[in-house]
Amino acid sequence: MSSLSFIPKVKICGLTRAEDVQHAITFGADFLGFIIEANSSRRLTVAEAKPLFAPANGLAKRVAVTVNASDDLLNQISKDLEPDYVQFHGDETVDQLANISKRYDFGLIKAVPILTNEDMKTAGEYAGLVDFVLYDAKPPKGSQVRGGHGVSIDWDIIARAPTPKTFALAGGLTPNTAAEAIYKTKAPILDVSSGVESAPGVKNASKIEAFMKAVHSHG
């Protein structure tokens, strides 16, 4: 692999414990993701997330991850958590996100499941509207949970498609696959969850450290 001229940023998602937030900050994560009121083993209520958001203020960008969130929930997230970004991982349309972007101060991330070249075209519809698009793997058939399955995208699909200047890559990333993912996709942001866990929602400090080292020494 040839070296690249940039070091991607890292988002550690699905955080549920204060010690994991601290480890993510210590090892240099750029974004911290918290799954709010969504169908997930890493689910948090707004009240549960609030004390986890506080230590990261000013040290890492805090992301509230939602799935088809109601207006009431978005209002609560905005007021109580004051996130840097809200990630929309559901069936939100371009029009819905355009309306949300006018109503709130937080940044917008749109997650789009990728399995085919056509899915990349769908993702492109959001590119000029949100702060960045997150390319994630399609969940296993029959699963009602949108992310965190440890399933990888075919990185060649990303490599072949035109991509915006800023995007994030998720799906099956681990300390062992991070360098290849960067090399193949040139992703400026890597989003990892299950790849740095001991169990769903329980992060592993050694895996976080190894992932960050893999990203910073890629090439």
Outline the biggest β-sheet.
8 strands, parallel, barrel
Q: What best-fitting shape do the alpha-carbon axes yield?
A: globular
Order of helices and strands: EHEEHEHEHEHEHEHEEEH
Terminal CA distance: 6 Å
User: What helical percentage do the residues reach?
Assistant: 25-40%
Low-confidence runs (pLDDT<50, min 5 residues)?
Answer: 142-149
Individual helix count:
8
Number of discrete domains? 1
Tally the beta strands.
Answer: 11
Please indicate the percent range of residues in DSSP E strands (runs of 2 or more): 15-25%
CATH class: Alpha Beta
CATH architecture call: Alpha-Beta Barrel
Topology-level CATH name: TIM Barrel
Oligomer: single chain
Structural description of this entry:
This protein has 219 residues and is of the alpha/beta class. It has one domain (9-216): TIM Barrel (Alpha-Beta Barrel). Helices cover 33% and strands 22% of the residues. The chain has eight helices and eleven strands. It has helices at 18-26, 46-53, 71-81, 94-103, 117-124, 155-160, 178-185, 205-216, and strands spanning 9-12, 31-36, 43-44, 61-66, 85-88, 107-114, 132-137, 167-170, 189-192, 197-199, 202-203. Strands 1-2-4-5-6-7-8-9 form an eight-stranded parallel beta barrel, surrounded by five helices. A two-stranded antiparallel sheet has the order 10-11. Helix 2 packs parallel to helix 3. It is globular.
